[in-house]
Structures are given as structure tokens and as C-alpha cells.
Amino acid sequence: LGPAPDWHARELLATSYVRxxxxxxxxxxxxxxxxxLASSRLRLRWGLLIGSxxxxxxxxxxxxxxxxxxxxxxxxxxLDALHQLAAAVWxxxxxxxxxxxxxxxxxxxxxxxxxxxxxxxxxxxxMLIVAGTGLxxxxxxxxxxxxxxxxxxxxxTKIVLLVGLLALGAANFFAVRRFSAAxxxxxxxxxxxxxxxxxxxxxxxxxxxxxxxxxxxxxxxxDRATLGxxxxxxxxxxxxxxxxxxxxxxxxxxxxxxxxxxRAWSEYNHHVSGLFVxxxxxxxxxxxxxxxxxxxxxxxxxxxxxxxMLVRNDPGAWxxxxxxxxxxxxxxxxxxxxxxxxxxVLFGLFEWMVRTHRLRSPRWPLVFxxxxxxxxxxxxxxxxxSLNLKSEFLVEVTHAPLGVLGIVIxxxxxxxxxxxxxxxxxxxxVWATGMTMFGVLLLLYRES
Length: 448
Prior knowledge:
Elements: H1 9-13, H2 16-36, H3 42-61, H4 65-68, H5 73-100, H6 111-139, H7 143-148, H8 150-177, H9 188-210, H10 227-233, H11 260-288, H12 301-312, H13 325-328, H14 332-355, H15 367-381, H16 389-396, H17 399-418, H18 425-443
Helix pairs in contact: 2-3, 3-5, 5-6, 5-9, 6-8, 8-9, 9-15, 9-17, 11-12, 11-18, 12-14, 15-17, 17-18
């Protein structure tokens, strides 16, 4: 709506965005009321729930890219509505499936519930793919737009995650078909895979939501990166372990345009961080393979990474820059960076205590995979503030594989924790190898 202070309520209500947002709020309230209605008023309850859900989807379409298009608007809005409906049925159904099994002790699923849901999910997946393909064709005008814009790369990332989700869903689908309709299903491995399927589904929805903050690829023409520029970012070269000096950086002006020295400073930070992560991944591989029990202490490497981050994150501040420690804490960016350093220290100590069984609760080992999965999702969807869309995109494009790896590491570790031996061996090797690959990608990171 803009920063103008003289907006009046009547003018705001005249915009389709505000009207659609108000409808979504009312629909959300309707869903809550419907869920709280007594089961004796079943017809009213279902009518309110279904009606509110449909209003929520239709109103959501009016705040999407489809509503702002001048060409093929009705078609794109219809596809968007179907896309949202299919995603809600599939991922929302997974959530309800897990809730249906919640109890003080996990109770078995009814085979009828599983088979009904698998059939419903199959139809939702088909609708999701068809509608998603139509939207992609409408918003992405060719391979250059797919690979040369933030929107296109996010679509590709979403497809990669969706392929993994489909593979997991297909495995669960065929597993359900093997169960007898006469006996309850209490197979723990199936339950664990449904947990991961739900987690991946929520990550895909998270990535899809971030697309609304990006201009469609078809609209980005002047600031579109060429295929050569994108390929350069992924062309391996020897990591740089030499850093510019503070005198070469514009530390006195935080708003100064980025220079070659700034980019070299950032690349050095990523490469040294990659060494720390590569060391952690290698130790984790040794541990999960049973080669070296002492390698379980790998989380302590995070303390070294935190010390490096404290020194290098803010070149204009203590200890390298001219700004003192306490004076620099008044800067929001510096304060945020130091808070992250503290979190890395705390997490390193926490995970070390989990690995050495100083923390014995079965819930504590789930913290690491959840943080990895959430961190991977944030890495996919975060953006750098820049007035140049192309330069911003060329920095962020290398984050896509890192984000996907973070998600794989998180959910593979989740399976290792939740599955019983010997089924936990493969996911254990997957996440440890993934962490090693994460370190390699950081070593190959480049901004020039």
C-alpha cells in the first residue's frame, strides 16, 4: 500500500488485497468455530468447515500473482485455486493422519482410514502436478527465465523437493496397499515415514509461499541473469584462503555499494566455514559407520566455527574493525550476528551433550534434525536486500542446493532417531554424507 500516512479506511477497503485479506481472516475464524462446534450439530459443523475452507482458498487466490495478471487471468486464478486445494488436501491430510494416531501410547491406524487417505492423496497429487505445470508455463517463459531468475530457481527447487516427497509418498502408498483390511496398522516404520512426508510437505508449502514475494520470471527481463553468469557461480575453482585487509573494505559506510574486496571477504568466510562443516561431516561419517566412537564429539567443532564467525562476521566492528564491542552492539545487524554466534555455541554444547548421553530424554535428539530442516527452509526463502535484482539473484542462487541439503540432512537424521535398528543405518549414513557435501559446497562457494 505504500508508506503514505494519509490512507483512509474507505480507500483501504476499496483495494482487492484488503478485502481478500479480511475474507481470509473471517474464513479462519469460521474454521475455528466449526472445529469447536459440538458433534451433535454435525451438518452445521461440516457446512461451516467446508464453506470456510473454500472461502479461504478463493480469497487466497485474490492475493496471488494470478489476480494481478492482465492476460489469461481467469485460467491462472483457477489453476492457483486448484493448486492450493490439492496441497491442502494432501499435506493437511497427512497432519490429520498423524493426529488420528496420537494418544498417551501411539495407537494403530485403521486400515480403512489409511486406504481412503491414500486414494484421496493420489487424486490430490495428480491435481497438484497438473495445476503446478499450468502455473509454471504461465509465469516462466522458457529455460532462460527458469535458470536466470529467483522465481525460476525457486520453482526448480520446489520441483526437486516435490520429487522427493512423491517418492516417499509412493512408498507409503504401496505399503498401505499391502496391509490387511481386517487388522489395525501399527507398523512404526510407516508412521515415521509419514512424519517425514508431512515435514517435507510443509517445507514445499513454505517454498511455495515464498514465490508470492518474488516477481514472476516472465516479468523479469532487464535484470535476468544469463545462463553463462549462472553457470559461472557453479563452476568449481580452488577455494580462496587469503582475505582482504580491513583497509580495503568500506567499513566506514555500511550503505556503500559492494566492492570486489567485499565479495572476496565473503568468499573467504564461506570457504573457512566450509572447512569446519567438512570436518564435522567427516567425523559424523566415521561415527555412524562405527569406525571411530570418539568421533561422536563432532558437535564441539561448532565452537571453533562460532569463534570464527565472531571475528569475521562484521569487519567494521570489534575485534577487527574500528568500532568498539559495546558501541557496535547498537547496530541491529551486529547484534543479530552475535546472537547467532551465541546460538551456535549453545547448540554445539547441547548436541554434544545429546551425543554423549548427558541428555537422555528421547526428545532431545529430535532438536538437531528440526533445526536443520527449518534452517534449510529459511536458507531457500531468505533474500538479501539489494537494489539490483540480478546481483541479488547471483548471490542467492548458490543457496538453493545448500538449502535442499539442509532439508535432506534434517529429515534423514529424524528417521535415524525415530527408526529402530537396523533400519536406522541408511538414514544415518545419508545425513552424515549430506553434511560432508554441505561443507564441500561451502568450499566451492563464489560470488564472482
